[in-house]
Structure prediction request, 747 residues.
Amino acid sequence: MNNETVTPVLEVKHLKKVFGQNEVLKDINEQVSNGQVICLIGPSGAGKSTFLRCLNMLDQPTSGEVLFEGQDLTKLDDKRLDKTRENMGMVFQSFNLFPHKTVIENIKLAPVKVKGEDDATATATAEKLLKQVGLENKADAFPASLSGGQQQRVAIARALAMNPKVMLFDEPTSALDPEMVGEVLKVMQDLASEGMTMVVVTHEMGFARNVADKVWFMADGYIQESAEPKTFFEHPETDRAKDFLAKILEA
Amino acid sequence: MKKFAKWLFLVVTIVVTLGVTGNMNTKADSNTPATDQYLSKVKAKGELVVGTSPDFPPYEFTKNINGKSKVVGMDMEISKKVAHDMGVKLVIRRMDFDSLLVALQTGKVDMVIAGMSKTPKRAKSVDFSNVYYKAGEDLVIKKSDLKTIKSYKSLAGKAIGAQTGSIQYNLVKNQATKSTLKGMDKDTDLILALQTNKIDAIALDQPTAEAYAKNTSGLVAINAHFKDEGEQGSAIAFPKGAQSLVNSANKSIAEIKSKNLIHKQYLPNAGKYLATGKSKSAKAANSMWAYKDFFIAGVGYTLMISAVSVVIGFLLGTLLALMRLSKNKIANGISVSYIEFVRGTPLMVQILFIYFGLGLVVNIPALLSGIIAVSLNSGAYVAEVIRSGISSIAVGQTEASRSLGLSRSMTMRFIILPQAMKNIWPALGNEFVSLIKESSIVSIIGVKDLIYQSRIVQADTYRGVMPLLITMILYFIMTFGLSRLMKFFEGRMTHE
Prediction:
């Protein structure tokens, strides 16, 4: 799957992010190639979410470069940044569906307003995506009437409607009741098997082990280990990682 | 009402500070040959705009003639003569007594006639004609008090009412030191206060006092026995330096005096209008139904002012809220200062300032001034409501929207504002309801809103409470209707 000669879809160089006195990300250098699924794991407070949000500039990095298809996002003006974000879908821990719009309106909004798609095309795409996430009968429901798992699947469909090149997932199952985690992971797994490039911040070790091409272990503002899941879970190198895995397995 | 005098003073101060033109030194001598342009300007526009406060019978008062409220009285007959002698049309502007001289100084009117006494203090800011009428001072009291009250001296420890800014007000203040002085803007309010035992007597100029006593059952007029403080009697006020107008008016006054027109013609005419007040047919005319057109017109104006102000206030408020939330320091600074300043000053002063203050630069009609002031005021309050609404939307909504490629402004338009609007709808409704009520203040600059009309009906019918009751009910219908309307839309916005 990995082809080192091709320009990586995403690349960060010396990425640093400081909040006030707090150095959350110290020096991060990584690449994501086309079609790769990356799972970003690590103890809470390690800066995983911040890192993810730096990838589409929802958080402005303090220094360093974020390259999307070779283009440094930190140097783009607002307008070109908006244009680039179309290609990077994002799914949030708390879903963040638009409560004043129906499910299908949530999905159609960006294609119609941003891309200028006509309503019929957008509706057709939205219906197809809803079918893909198994919610074709919920098109006209409002988000508040859906379960957490359903809302998150709508959120995934909404992000996919822009036909992004990369999908960023920020702890997509952390806010869900346990019985709903599976349905969301299933959708993500299908997506991965279709070849979508994904960066997933998660605590679902099973998902990381089975689906990821690579696991990034993050702690103390650095990516401490970057390895294939099998290698990482069976032979962690750093003490930090060993400690983390030991705690996870205890639970 | 004392507050009002303070605001007015403030506005006058500002106006005078802005408008010092160096003509303050002009001597108001009736023999001075005129070199100014005032008379030729009046002749050029073909009309003489006269300001008056028509609650002062028999000098000036309003009468419902064929369903229209007309200002009549002795002063109006004099004005007619003055205008006629100048060869121009007479146009009458009604306003509060307190606002008259400000209106004169700011060029809203060409002359003021309102039974106004010529005093040295007033003569500092305006030029007076010769005195056309001089009367003594009376007290209006209840018939039942006739035995106990003989002069102002009998009123020690009691309350005496007088029109704010009037000569009688100062007489009471200076001489009846043992009594409490209650100042009000309108004589009709004073009469009402007397009838409802809020005050024990009203100090009024003699013909006025007699007119009220004659037309209001249970009231009588007695001589107040004030010491003469050198009053010169009533004269016509003109802008400082308008010698040409003063000269022309003096010529007319001289003719009126030589023919004794005031006593032979003007006062009896005024009496005729007043006399009808007690006859049976007049009673029918004084029923509130006969004045329905006044109330309808008032409601129309109030609704119009409110509707326009709600729309402008809402747009302005949205703009200010976005400016306040923006990262641009200048936009933020402008918005914060505007909101703080407007919320920190009374609407009444804002209205007076826009009408009189800006009137020095551009002449804005009263109605437009009122709409502008109420809109600008409402914008500041709406801005804060909208800001709180926008802040109440979780940041995740913005992030989700931006991550989909929507720009900052699209996010505001499609995601944040629609949700914020739903959250703040009840607060916005409150804001609009108070806007309807607060718009009533435009009546002080003579906008013909509901309050203004109810004043006219009060003055016309000599009935104090009934017009107020009707006005209150009409306001309630409007505000209640609006809050039901807001509720209806609120229901339509709720999805969950």
The first strand of chain A starts at residue 10 and ends at 19. The interface with chain B takes residues 53, 56, 58, 78-79, 82-83, 85-86, 88-90, 92, 94, 96-100, 109-110, 113-114, 142, 144-145, 155, 158-159, 162, 168 of chain A (CB under 8 Å). Chain A has a mean pLDDT of 92.
